[in-house]
Design goal:
With 227 residues, this protein is α/β, with parallel strands linked by helices. The protein has two domains: 7-121, Tetrapyrrole methylase, N-terminal domain (Cobalt-precorrin-4 Transmethylase, domain 1, 3-Layer(aba) Sandwich), CATH 3.40.1010; 124-224, Methyltransferase, Cobalt-precorrin-4 Transmethylase, Domain 2 (2-Layer Sandwich), CATH 3.30.950.10. It is built from nine helices and ten strands. It has helices spanning 7-17, 37-44, 53-57, 77-83, 103-109, 123-131, 151-157, 171-180, 206-209, and strands at residues 22-26, 48-51, 65-68, 89-93, 115-118, 139-142, 160-164, 186-192, 200-205, 218-224. Strand 2 (48-51), helix 3 (53-57) and strand 3 (65-68) form a beta-alpha-beta unit. The protein binds S-adenosylmethionine. Residues 29-30, 93-96, 99-101, 122-123, 144, 164-166, 191, 193-195, 217-219 line the site of S-adenosylmethionine (SAM). S-adenosylmethionine binds next to strand 10.
């Protein structure tokens, strides 16, 4: 008689023959209704989820093995390389994996056929949908773990900027930085906790923004004021 294995056991057996593919899945801005059905399906079929606190919280109810990502993603690479022999491992990425995620690092450690990327709805898409505008002409800049080096020049050179902020570079600090470098006549829209019940959207200008504080998870759109 041919033995019938449950799916998870079968994956383990297949994993020993070949190697389980690693999944890199975009979870969107963070709420369940912005998660693509294909992402949900692959996450449910995973054995282990690796991600930040916010991403893991969304899937606690699935009772998967969880690995919390804090800081350097490269720290979990040895675990990932070994673990995929026996488990289907999924890396949860906020928004879309193609934008400012650790996809670049993955492609340095795994061969192309060893990982699968599932797109997600990016904070860029949500933000521009909120202001009812397209973003094909926008310059996208991330300050996540970076410096503000050439920010003023880039903002000056573009009439539509999208910014991924960072806890070290909150909106008010960005406003001060730009104003000190002579960037003026700019509208700023700060969008905090997009799609969550405590979502907040503030349309202002750089001068007002410099005096504000207390922003959390947010993005910004900076636009030239009409002359
Ligand atoms: C490392 S980037 C990842 C971007 C992501 N791959 C994407 O496509 O949206 C993380 C930044 O995205 C922004 N972000 C992610 N989710 C957000 C949300 N729900 N509301 C506001 N900003 C968000 C914040 O600026 C955060 O610092």
């Amino acid at each position: 008689m041919i033995p019938i294995h449950p799916r998870s056991k079968l994956r383990g057996i297949l994993g020993r023959c070949g190697m389980n593919k690693v999944y890199v899945i975009g979870i969107g801005p963070g709420t369940a209704d912005c998660l693509l059905p294909i992402a949900q399906r692959e996450i449910e079929a995973s054995d282990c989820l690796i991600g930040g606190k916010r991403a893991l919280r969304l899937f606690h109810h699935l009772h998967k093995e969880e690995v919390l990502l804090e800081g350097n993603f490269e720290k979990v690479i040895p675990y990932l390389l070994k673990g995929r022999e026996r488990k289907k491992i999924t890396l949860l990425v906020s928004g879309d994996p193609g934008l400012c995620s650790f996809l670049g690092t993955i492609s340095r450690f795994l061969k192309r056929e060893e990982y699968v990327v599932i797109p997600g709805i990016s904070a860029v898409q949500i933000a521009f949908a909120k202001i009812g505008e397209g973003w094909e002409d926008a310059t996208i800049i991330s300050l996540h773990g970076r410096k503000m080096d050439d920010l003023a020049e880039r903002v000056s050179a573009s009439s539509k900027i999208f910014l991924f902020t960072d806890q070290n570079f909150p909106p008010e600090r960005i406003a001060v930085h730009l104003l000190e470098r002579g960037v003026e006549n700019r509208r700023a829209v700060v969008m905090e906790n997009l799609t969550y019940p405590n979502e907040r959207i503030l349309a202002t200008d750089l001068n007002h923004l410099r005096g504000m504080e207390g922003f959390g998870l947010c993005v910004m759109i900076i636009k030239k004021e009409r002359e």
